Amino acid sequence: MTRTHRGALSRGWMWGLLLCGALGCSGTDEGGGGSDAGTDLGPDELPCDVKAVVAERCAYCHTTPLKGSAPMALLARSDFQRASSVNALQSVGQRSLERLGSAAAPMPPKSEPSLPDAQRAVLTAWLESGMPAGTCGSLPAGPAPTTCSSGSFWSEASGTGASMAPGHACRNCHLQQAPSMAYFFMGTVYPTLHEADGCDPRLASPSEVKVEILDSQGQTRLTLTPNSAGNFMSNSLQPSFPLPYRVRLVGADGRSREMSTLQTNGDCNTCHTEQGASNAPGRIALP
Predict the structure, then answer these.
(1) What's phi and psi for 265, nearest 5 deg?
(2) Cα-flanking dihedrals φ and ψ of residue 45, to 5°?
(3) Which of 102, 104, 123, 271 is deepest in the core (most CB within 10 A)?
């Protein structure tokens, strides 16, 4: 891992819940929402409990600008009230309710941990009741605040080696400065999506976290374990199986999320940046 390089962008893991799929965010079947010209939708405020669920489970893909192939923003009450582009007789909210209960095309998608019962109940009740206005406003558009959950940053004084420079594009720098250690699969696991470059993840029980590299047929070909700095890496300069690949991240609690698109670049942090690049919504975050 190195200090300052971020590397060339590649397609990243795509993450999300409700109307967003992640280690892969997968878009909904809405084409961007319909028009409500001339319609008074009423106060554009979300109830506080609904806003909290949307913020945690939807808005890191369904934001502005959009991330993870999400087709529309879901930041305000009016976003749910708009006409669905799939069925003009339904609102986006009504379509969302159907997807919450769908076995064939569920939201959250099958790549994601299931929505906790309490959060599902909050969203379902609000959507079933016609999406009444609340008093907690809407969610902000634009970049999410960057954080460092541990409050601790790596520095050169901390030492080099496998624990150095978490969050940076490891392989890109190694190719330039230490090609004999430019291992094909390299990245950092964080507790949340928008951790700052160099922030020490300090994962709880990192030895119980698994980064499973899957081939195009979904077979596990390699299992990597993050170290105390959240960094993981393979031990070969080239993959030992034919590309493309996907990744499944399994947390210490057994929950998992799986990339929804096949990849060819093993330098994971080139896409999983502080804000996310090339359609990734942010860091490689625990389920």
Answers:
(1) -100, 125
(2) -125, 140
(3) 271
